[in-house]
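A student in our group prepared the protein record below, which I am reviewing. This is what I was given:
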Amino acid sequence: MNYQVDEKGYYGVFGGAYIPEMLYPNIKELREKYLEFIEDPKFQEEYVMLLKDYVGRPSPLFLAERLSKKYGAKIYLKREDLNHTGAHKINNTVGQILVAERLGKKRIIAETGAGQHGVATATVCALKGLECIVYMGAVDIERQAPNVARMKMMGATVIPATSGSQTLKDATNEALRDWINHPTDTHYILGSVVGPHPYPDMVARFQSIISEETKWQLQEKTGKSTPDYVLACVGGGSNAMGMFYHFLADEDVKLIAVEAAGKGVDSGESAATTLLGKEGVLHGSRSLVMQTEDGQVVEPYSISAGLDYPGIGPQHAHLFTSRRALYVSITDDEAMLAGMELSKLEGIIPAIETAHALAYLGKMKFKEDDTVVVCLSGRGDKDLDTYMKYFGL
């Protein structure tokens, strides 16, 4: 089965570009140019140079020995938390800022939940001297204050989204409204594998560096380039798509995507899209969406600001329905305990998003020689306040 996008922008029945007429020229221009840009040798030369000298790639693949001993397998952590800005998000913003430059755009907008994508966008805008506006839910601004300060220090304007649940979905709505009102001079750096085609494919390509490196790093460490299991957390799904990308065609590699169950899948406060969602259109693409019987989007919830999104990227929806990947969910409590466990066992404080993926290790049965790779998508500095309140530190 083909798991990549087709010429019409679909992954099976999911994807496409369901956009207002005002945005059609922007999306058409991007769709016609993005592959030409990305495949250009000069683009690749600059992109690879920035990833190496600015971002700090390749990110290490670390054998977590104490974690491995506890769960009875060889568990490797792909250390995206060690990237400049502290998460995988910078892989995509470096690529998209180079695309924006070639499109002649001088104004950059973005949406952010946990703030890591906002920080990564503000970072590359400062690097290239471009105006930066970041939309962020008012609730997320409060719970991710350190990242808001980082964005402002780099010259970005942070605008609160005060509608709906005042989180990631609402920030995305506001960013799309801005783009409709500024179609000619503005590029929207979308932060996940969501939105109208070609965004899901473009973001996945930029994030695919994660699995590309993992393959040769595993070969060096184990003599084999493929693991038995790959785990990653999923909100919209960019770190997971990057982690899965170069393993999609190898059916022997089991792909596990971990969503946020929040306070429980049946609690009414959850973001487990594959369990609670059904086909619908959200933010410009057809995918699985949490919605009421009459199609109104259900407000998602997670203790993690980066996972409380009511949808999932269309490529993920295709992987779920085709059963190429297993989609599971982890509660707030399980994630928080897993975050504390990694901190104590390995001296690595993970982002709460990442902690959801780590928590699923305890629900798996391994053989001693199993090789497991977990995408450590971000570091926990931004979440210290949440950790402190939860554990009474």
